[in-house]
Amino acid sequence: MKKMYLLPIVLMGVLSYGQMGVNNLTPKSTVDIASKTTDGSTSEGLLIPRLTGNQLKAAETAAVYASAQHATLVFVTAAPDSNNRTGQVEGMDAPGFYYFDAGSNRWIKILSSGASTPALTQLLCSAATHIGVLEATSPASGVSVTVPYNGGNGGVYSEQIVPSVGVTGINAVLASGTLNNGSGNLIFNIVGTPAAAGTATFNINLGGESCGFNIMVQPNTNFADVVPVIINGETRQMMTRNLGADPTMDPDIPTQAIMGSYYQWGKKNAAATAYTSEAAISGWNTTNAANKAWNSGTEAAPVKTANDPCPAGFRVPTGNELSGFNAASTVSNIGTFVASPGSATNFSVAKKFVNNGSTLTFPVAGQRNYSAGVLEERANRGVYWSSSESQDSTVYSIYFTLFSTNVSGSNFGFRTMGYSIRCISE
User: Fold this and answer.
1) Which pLDDT tens digit goes with each residue over 102-154?
2) Per-residue pLDDT averaged across 234-248, rounded?
3) From the CB of residue 45, how many other CB atoms can be counted at a distance below 10 Å?
4) Candidates 3.60.21, 2.40.128, 2.60.40, 3.30.470; correct CATH number of 122-218?
5) How far is it, in rounded angstroms, from Cα 128 to Cα 131?
6) Which of 382, 408, 383 shows the shortest CA–CA distance to 326?
7) SS3 assignment, position 56
8) 172 and 143 in contact (C-beta within 8 Å)?
9) pTM (predicted TM-score)
10) Cβ-based neighbours of 185, under 8 Å, separated by 6 or more
């Protein structure tokens, strides 16, 4: 009971002087902590929150850390899984103290070695890989390049904006971050509008090493990128292709190029493309995204989040919106649906939706399995994510299914499944 009576006195001291002392009656700063003993008989020091890298990645999905959390300090007890080292925890490669830098939207490692200047031994542009397709005079959307490196020293690097050479009008943007100690990857997002068809070259320089990578810009095909549709009585814009599909190809002729990519629910980056092997995918992410990962609003008033993979001005539709689109459409089949478990090499099957005078073709691309990313059901059924999670669940979310005889919009799937996405205007 005596401790309870003392609490108001302590609080009055904090309010009166604006400073707090721990084991110290005369604090010299906002918080002044003195050791209780000096003979080694008790543990002394400040113990801050301890978290794993995977837990901080889950916090990013839930939009926990933003500008209000700038300068937050934690101790990371274990680095995130390699497939989780994106976004805020990119470059978090080892245990240690990290602080949150809201300006770069990254956790930055506090380096005991003083190696704040980034250095590496090799940039491997020759091994660079890219996602997405660039088309002349069309804004870049969902295009990125991953460049491996060796010999990183854990140094912190600033944001880079690298302009293209050859075909102009586009930039490769590298967000600020921290190099791994050893090998790692740099992810450059391509933004802007290519001025013409041809080869765009990007010459990069980081940590004392330089190299260049190329991206081919396809000719403008003049296929419509978006069309107006009716959804729940309102006119909206819907993209004519699945996210990740080749914009140079006719979106209404089913081919491998228009299948698009496969996304796990709530995740920003594609988990596989139409050209990925049908076999299991090494490092498949089996961590479920948190609720509201793609929609921080409500079903009736959705709000796009930073994790939404759709381009600017567009977002993943809600389950209600996909059902509304289907209800306002006349639906027919393209090609012949095959029996389960589908065919990995059959790219000729799709559903055609005629809505508000617009024709949209939805490829029957199948799915990637939740446990290891194995391809399933291509040409048997098409599966499209909504931004809606199932009620009272952190494991399942709602998807839209294209069967040979009908379209169903009330299905619940594991969030780590890989499904297609068709974006609508915000």
Assistant:
1) 877 888 877 554 456 899 999 999 999 888 788 888 888 778 899 999 988 88
2) 93
3) 7
4) 2.60.40
5) 11
6) 408
7) helix
8) no
9) 0.57
10) 146, 147, 148, 149
